[in-house]
Write a structure and sequence with these properties.
Elements lengths: L13 H4 L9 H5 L1 H13 L1 H17 L5 H12 L4 E5 L4 H13 L4 E5 L29 H11 L3 E5 L5 H8 L4 E5 L10 H5 L19
Parallel strand pairs: 1-2, 1-3, 3-4
Helix pairs in contact: 3-4, 4-5, 7-8
């Protein structure tokens, strides 16, 4: 398979400092000055985008390597002036969700949390078979990210936070959320919600990642 060179194959990283040269395949040069300038202008054209960009940029410069993501999230919410913030949480992370809500409330921030099992809809209602449940032949609620998004849309949240939604379910939530979305926790049941751990260990425990095969599901 022919490989298309992208930022992942670049060793120059010249777009960060502009102290060297751009490689021939560089996306910065390939996209062209006109597009770069057009997109840059969008940050000022939309006041909502401009405020997010400015607050996020200042957070990076002030707290880089100093504040945890939980702390950065709370600071971001306060500086953005959000009055209604939603949380779309995995049922398996409701304890963590409750702790985050308490931490937010201590800072004067109110959160509206919705679990992934909201609606209590059986998995078979969307086409999954009984043999595809964790425990067949009994009620098993589906993850319902579209309903999570709709609940937060109806509540009028200005900003939504994802806490541990499954791969794909998170995509549906982001697609249907009317408010901007950010991640607080990315689910990885094997690595204590630290998916980067697999990449850090590709030279040892997770060397299988560099081979052609994917893990096989439950038979």
């Amino acid at each position: 398979m022919e490989q298309t060179l992208t930022c992942a194959q670049c060793g120059a990283r010249n777009c960060k400092s502009k102290t060297g040269t751009f490689p021939q395949f560089c996306l910065t040069t390939a996209l062209g000055d006109n597009l770069v300038q057009e997109v840059t202008a969008r940050y000022k054209a939309d006041k909502g985008d401009e405020k997010i960009a400015l607050v996020a940029g200042r957070l990076e410069s002030e707290f880089y390597g100093r504040a945890t993501r939980v702390e950065e999230m709370l600071i971001f919410i306060k500086r953005m002036g959000y009055k209604k913030v939603g949380v779309a949480a995995c049922m398996g992370l409701m304890n963590e969700c409750s702790l985050f809500v308490r931490a937010a409330e201590a800072k004067g921030i109110g959160l509206y949390a919705v679990t992934c099992k909201v609606g209590a809809v059986d998995k078979t209602e969307v086409g999954l078979g009984e043999d595809e449940k964790n425990v067949p032949n009994q009620f098993e609620a589906m993850c319902n990210p579209i309903l999570q998004a709709e609940a937060l849309n109806r509540e009028g949240t200005e900003f939504n936070i994802i806490m541990g939604l499954c791969v794909g379910h998170d995509s549906l939530f982001i697609k249907h959320s009317k408010a901007p979305v950010s991640y607080l926790i990315v689910k990885d049941r094997v690595l204590c919600h630290n998916p980067a751990g697999a990449l850090y260990n590709t030279g040892t425990f997770y060397s299988r990642l560099m081979g052609p095969n994917l893990p096989k599901g439950r038979s």
